[in-house]
Amino acid sequence: MVNVHAPKTADRSCCFESALDVVTAATGDPETSHRQCILSELMSNSALVRFSRDGDYFHYLWAARRCLRLLLPSSGLVAVSIEGASTQETAAGLAIDAGEELIDVAEYYGSENIKQATRIRYLQLKHSTQRAIEPWPASGLEKTLKGFADRYRALEHRLGPGALLGKLEFGFVSNRPISADFREAVADAAAGADARHPEELKKLEAFTGLDGSALSDFCKLLHLEGDQEGYWDQRNLLAIDASEYLPGSDVDAPVRLKELVNRKALSESAASPTIIKTDVLRALQTDTDRLFPAPSRIKPSMGIVPREQEGDLTRQIIQTTGRAIIVHADAGVGKSVFATRIGQALPEGSVCILYDCLGTASIATQADTGTGTRMRWYRSPTN
After folding, report:
1. Are residue 63 and residue 190 in the same domain, yes or no?
2. Which helix (H) or strand (E) holds 78?
3. d(CA 77, CA 107)
C-alpha cells in the first residue's frame, strides 16, 4: 500500500478539502478520493511550471529573432543585452539600477554607451499560454510601468531634461492583447489630449507617479506591443528569419542562436550580458562574406563597344508585354556584357535586376566552404 501525504500548509489543506468533497462525491471512497485529489494538485503545479517554461522560450526565441538584426548594416543595432542593461552603458561604478530588474531585453543602436547611443530600447516580455486571448488590464502592467518610470527619472536626472526624447524607448511586449482603453489612455497622455478614459488615466498616473507634462514626456517613449506571436510561432519564425541570411538549409542554426540567448540569461553572463554581431555570426557558424544578400561581384562595364544587335534587342524588350524575352547565344559572344547594359536603355521608372548565379564564375571549393559544396550562389541585384 502506498501512503500519500498532503503538504502541511493551511492554503493547500483548504484546497484539498474542497477538492476532496467533490472527488469523494464522485467515487464514494474518501481514501481513494484523497489520493486522487493530491495527485491532481501535484499535476496542477507541474502544469504551472510548464507554462512558466513556455514564457522562457518565448523570451529566448523573440530575443534571438531580434539578434538577427545585428547582421543588417542599415539597422544601426550594435548590441542586444539579455536580462538587464548593458554593463557598458556607463562608466564602472556609475550603473543605473532603477528598473533594471524589469529589462528582459535591451537594444543599443550606435553605441552601448548611454550618452553616445542614438537609440536605446528597454523591453519587458510577457507570455501567457492559458490566457493568450485575454487582454492585459491596466493592473497587470502596474509593476512594469512603475519600474520603467523609475528608470526614466533616473536617466533624466543623469542626462538632463529633454535628452531622452528620440533616444529612449520603453516597451512592453506580449502575446496577449492589451486593454484598448488603457492603450488609448497612454496615447492621450502622450499627445497631451483630453482623456477619453479618465479612470485609466488615473491608474497610469498612480502607477508611474507622474502627471501633466512629465507624464506626457514619459508616454511618448512608452510602446505597448500586444498580440505578438506565441512561443510556438516564434520558433517557426526564427527558423524562417535565419534562413533568409544563410545559404543552404542549416536546421541547427536557429537552435544555436536561441542557445546563445539562453546562455546570456544565466548567471555566468552577468558581467557580460550583451550579444554583438560577432556572437551571432559565431552561433550561425558563418561570416559576413557568406551571408545573404551577398555583395554584388558584377563590375560595371567600361569602354565597351556596343554590338549592332544591342539596339534591336533592347527595343524588343521595351515593346514586348505579357511574355518573357530570352536572349541566348554561344559562350563568349557578350551575353553578360549586354545584360549589364540593358538598364541604360530602359525608359525612366524601369527596374533592371541583374542576377549572376555563379558570382562572375567564381567557384567555392570544399576547402573554401568546409561543407563539401562546390558552387556558391550569389544574388547580385542592381538598380
Report:
1. yes
2. strand 77-82
3. 7
| Whether residue 284 sits in one domain with residue 300 | no
pLDDT-derived band at 294 (thresholds 50, 70, 90) equals low
Decide if 335 contacts 329 (C-beta within 8 A).
Answer: yes
Q: Give the angle 62-70-110 at the CA atoms, nearest 5°.
A: 115
Q: Does residue 190 lie in a domain region?
A: yes
Residues 251 and 298 grouped into a single domain: no
pTM > 0.90 = no
Would residue 1 count as lying in a domain?
Answer: no
Q: From CA 124, how far away is CA 170, in angstroms rounded?
A: 8
* 40 and 64 assigned to the same domain: no
Distance (Å, whole) CA 245 – CA 259:
18
Measured CA to CA, the distance from residue 375 to residue 70 in angstroms comes to 27
- Angle (CA) 166 177 118, round 5°: 15
SS3 72: coil
| 267 and 253 belong to one structural domain | yes
Q: Flag whether pLDDT at 365 surpasses 70.
A: no
- Domains contained in the chain, number: 3
Overall average pLDDT of the 319-345 stretch? 83
Residue 182 lies in a domain: yes
CA angle, corner 234, sides to 230 and 235, nearest 5? 125
Residue of 342 and 43 predicted with greater confidence: 342
- Say what the pLDDT of residue 322 is: 84
Q: How far apart are CA 278 and CA 284, in angstroms?
A: 10
In sequence order, the β-bridge partners of residue 39 are none
SS3 310: helix
Structural domain that includes position 20: 10-49
Could you read off the pLDDT of 106-163 as tens digits, one per residue?
999 999 999 999 999 999 999 999 899 999 999 999 999 999 999 999 999 988 888 8
- Clarify whether residues 120 and 250 are in a common domain: yes
Pairing of strands 105-109, 77-82: antiparallel
Provide the pLDDT for residue 325.
84
For residues 17 and 58, state if they share a domain.
no
